[in-house]
Amino acid sequence: AELLGSEGFVERYREARMRRKSKGLDLLDIPDGAVVMVDTERSVERCLAALAEVFGDDAEQDAGLVTAWLRRPDCRVLYLKLGSRDLGMCIIAGSEHAKKSERKPDGAPNVGVVEQVGLSKVARGKGLSRPLVRAGLVELAKLGFPEIEVLADRRRASAAELYEAEGFALVDENIHWIRREPWASSYSTAPASV
After folding, report:
1. Core-most of 28, 56, 70, 100, by most CB within 10 Å?
2. Whole-angstrom Cα distance, residue 107 to residue 102?
3. Is the pTM for the entire model greater than 0.85?
């Protein structure tokens, strides 16, 4: 941290890497008549639409990348549906960061991960987050992962609290750094005169 600080880097944000065993998970009741369903068709269009609904301007929009996500063997997208609308989503998969000791002989991970989870603005504050996350955890357990991992953005205390309530414990922290170049703030996109 000192070295990065001396080079002009500042901490942008922290992620808490948290884990728990997959045993002992049951589905929770979902309020307001909502249902959680697994997309067995792995629809790229549906996933892109749900990402936009949930994450707005911060949503991934690259269809090729989303296609690559969905083609992974253990990737699943769970949708929180209210009426005919997808108002939440939870993307789960095998951990790409699993250590060699956390892999099967064929190289597949033994650790499942909740990659992205969120609710649209109209669904927030109604007690729907925890049942959606729990459905993702149960699905990872069904897929045979003995351990489950999540990343919680420390800027959102509610996310870390939700995972702690689900039995997760901190195993590591990732710090994301950023450095602004002095010329970047005065950079102009206007064409240079020749």
Report:
1. 70
2. 9
3. no
